[in-house]
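Notebook, student rotation project (T.W.).
Task set for the rotation: take a protein with a known small-molecule partner, predict the structure of the complex, and write up what can be learned from the model alone. Partner molecule chosen: zinc ion. Sequence and SMILES entered below by T.W., checked by me.
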Amino acid sequence: MDRRYDPRAVEAKWQRRWKERDAYRVADASERPKFYCLDFFPYPSGDGLSVGHCRNYVPTDAVARYKRMRGFNVLHPMGWDAFGLPAENYALKMGVHPRETTVRNIANYHRQMDLIGLSFDWSREITSSEPDYYRWTQWFFLLMHERGLAYRGTGQQWWCPSCKTILANEQVEQGRCWRCGSDVTKKDLEQWYFRITDYAQRLLDDLATIEWPEQIKLMQTNWIGRSDGAEVDFALPGRDEPLTVFTTRPDTLFGATYMVLAPEHPLVDELTAAEHREAVAAYKDQARRQSEIERLSTEKEKTGVFIGAYAVNPVNDAPVPIWISDYVLMGYGTGAIMAVPAHDERDFQFATQFELPIVEVIAPPSGAQGTLSEAYVGDGVMINSGRFDGLPAPGEAFAAVTDWLGERGLARRKVNFKLRDWLISRQRYWGAPIPIVHCDACGPVPVPVDQLPVLLPDLEDFHPTDDGQSPLARNEEFVHAACPRCGGPGRRETDTMDTFVCSSWYHLRYASPHCDEAAFKRDKVDYWLPVDLYVGGSEHAVMHLLYARFFCKVLHDAGHVGFSEPYATLRNQGMILAEDGQKMSKSKGNVVTPDSVVERYGADGLRVYELFIAPFEQSVAWSDRGVQGCLRFLGRFWNLAAEVAEAAGSGVPAGDAEAEKGRALSRSLHKTIRKVTRDMETFRFNTAVSALMELQNEALDVWANARGALSLAEWRGFVLDVTRLLTPMAPHLAEEVWELLGQPGSALDADWPEWDEELAADEVVTVVVQVNGKLRDRLSVPVDAEREAVFTAARAAGNTARFLEGKELVKEVYVPGKLVNFVVR
Ligand SMILES: [Zn+2]
Ligand SMILES: [Zn+2]
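Predicted structure of the complex:
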C-alpha cells in the first residue's frame, strides 16, 4: 500500500460524495435540540476569499460539525450581502453591470467554500440583491413606516464626495468615509431615517442579556452614550423664552461664569448686539468650514467670540455673558452649554484663553483649594454655592440643586443619548429601492405590500452624480408611477436603501429561505431563532450589530417574533496578517488565498492550521511552515490508521513495561477527549489541536516500540476515537480513515466520543510548600496543574498562610510537581 497521504485525491473524493448525498441539508424540525451557527454574511468581493476569511469560516464550520456529532440539529447556512457600495464601485471599475459581477463573484466564493470543505446547507442560500429577497427588505421599510419609525428629514448630512452618497453617522470614522477613506463633507438633502433613537434605552439594557465580547458591548454602550442630567433654563432679559441648556452637573451651577452657543444656534442672530454683528458673522463663517472632528479636538486652540448678550443664572441671578464657539455642536443636547471652567477641561481652556472668571464650586476631598492649574472634575463637596455649601457632589448635590430649581419651574431631569437616528437613503444605484411614491396631493405614500417588490430597473448607465440625485432619477419609466392612494400622477422615490438594512434581518430568512408569502415563516423562525452562535469581525460593532438588534426589537414589538435579541452569543475572530506581520492587501501583493494553500497542503491542512494558529480572538501572522506542520500531523495519523487497518493477528503479548505504556496511552486518550470537548465548547481550538498532536506522538511511540501494549481491537478503537475528535477539524481525512477501518455510514454522523471520568482523572502529586526555604505544608495537586493555580492553593494552605501574613512577598518559585517556595521579608 502506498503510505503517502494524498490530500488532493482524498478531498476531491469526499467532496464529491458529500455533494451526491446532500450531506449538509438540514431538516426544519427534529427530535434533537437545535443549534443555529451563523457567520456574518459576506459581501462577495472580486478578490475572493483569503486565508483571513477562513479564520472565521473554518472555526464555525468545526463548531457546526461538532454540535452535529453531539446530537444537535444544526443550521449552518451561507448567503450574500450583495447590494451596496463596494459591489457597485467594483462594477464601475470593471465596466460591467453589478448584476454580472455579483453573480461571478458569488460563484467564486461558493467554489472556494466548497474547496475548504465547509458544511453549508446550500439549499438555503440567499442573495440580498435578488428580488425575492429585497422584496422583503422593502417590506421591513413599510413596517417601520407603519409604526412611525421611518420618516423624512432634512439637515446637514455627511456626504462622501468620492462615493457620491450620503452616509449614516456610523459610517463616518474620524471624519472619513468608512468605505473609501475620503474626507467627508456636509450636504443639505431630504433623507429617510429610521428612528433607532426610540430604542436607545432598550438597546442599552438588553446588552446584559447576551453573551457578547465585553469590548463590543462597551463600544455599543459608548455609541448609544446615555448621560443623566438636567435641562436648566437661563432667563434672557427682555425675552419670554429662556435659553435652555443640558448639563450633567447642575451641582456646579454657581460656577457657571459664561455660556456658549453653537455658532449655528437659531438664537444667535436674535441675541447678538449690534456692535458684535460683524465679528459674529465672520466667526460663523469660519466655523462652517470645519469638520465636526476638528471642532471637537482637544488639541486645538479654542476660538470664539462674545455676542454682547447676557443670560441670568437661575441659582443666584448673576448675569452670565454669552459667547459662541465651535466646540459646542448643534447635534447634541440643546446646542447651548453653561460653562463651568473650574470643573470642565474644555471650559477651563476656553476661560484661560479669553481671561474669563474661574470660580471653584466643588472642593476636592483633600481640601486643597485656591488657584487651579487645571479643571477639577472629581468628586467633592459644594463650596461658594450659598445654601448648598457642604453637600457632597455630584451625588446628593445633583439632586438638591435640580429639585430646588424644579420646584421653581427652572429645571427638569433629563436623559440624553448620543445615538442619532439611522439615515438609510443612499443616492446610489445598487440597492433596494425605497418603496415610496411621492404624490403632490398625498405626500409620500408607501407602496402597498401586494405590489412589492419595487423592482430595481436594469440601468445601462448607473454612474452616481454630484448633485445628490440617485441614478434611478434618470430613468423616466421607473420614476413615473401612479399614486397608490389617489391614483394621480406620482414620482417614485429614487434613493435606494443603505445595504445595512438588507443585513439587519437576513438571519431570519435562512429559516424559510424560499417563503414567498412573507419575509419568513413564523413557525420556522420560532424553531430556529435566535442565532445560537454568531461569528464575524469586530469592525461592525456599532453598525450591523446595532442595526440588527434594533430590527429585532421592532419585529418583536410588532408581534412578528417572540424574542428581542437576534444573536445569543457573538465571537470575533482575530486577523491573519501576512508572513511579514503586515496587513494582507492586494496592493501589497501579500494576500494568501485558500486556493494556493489547498493546492499545496490540502483543505484539511489549511483547516487544522487555521484552528491551531493562535487563540481564536488573537491576530497572528500566517506561516507556510505552520501549515506544513499541520499536514505532517495529519499524514502521520493516516499512516497509523493505515497500519492498524492492515495489521493482522493479536500481535506479541505484552510484557509488564509494555502493558504500563498501554494503560498510559489509554489514560491520555480519555484526557484528550475531555480536553478537546471542553475546548470545542469554549472556542479554544488551538489547544484542542495541540492536545491531539501530543496524543498522537505518544501513540506513534507506543505503536513503534510497544505495539503489543494494546490488542488490535483496542488499537482500532483508539484510531476511531481520534478520528471522531478530528472530524470537525479535518473532515475529509476523517471520512477516509472511517472507510479504511470499514466503519458503516459516515464519520460526519458518528457520535462524539465520551470520556471515562476515572481514566481521565488527573494524576495527583505531592508538592512541598516552603516559606524562605523552610517546609510549611504539603499539598496534593494535579500533575499538570497550572502554575498560578498551585500558587493560589499554596498561599491558602493553613500553615503557609500564617507565615505569609503581614510579610512582603519578594518572589514565588514553582518546581513543577515538586516544590513551591515563597521568599518573603
Ligand atoms: Zn466614500
Ligand atoms: Zn395621491
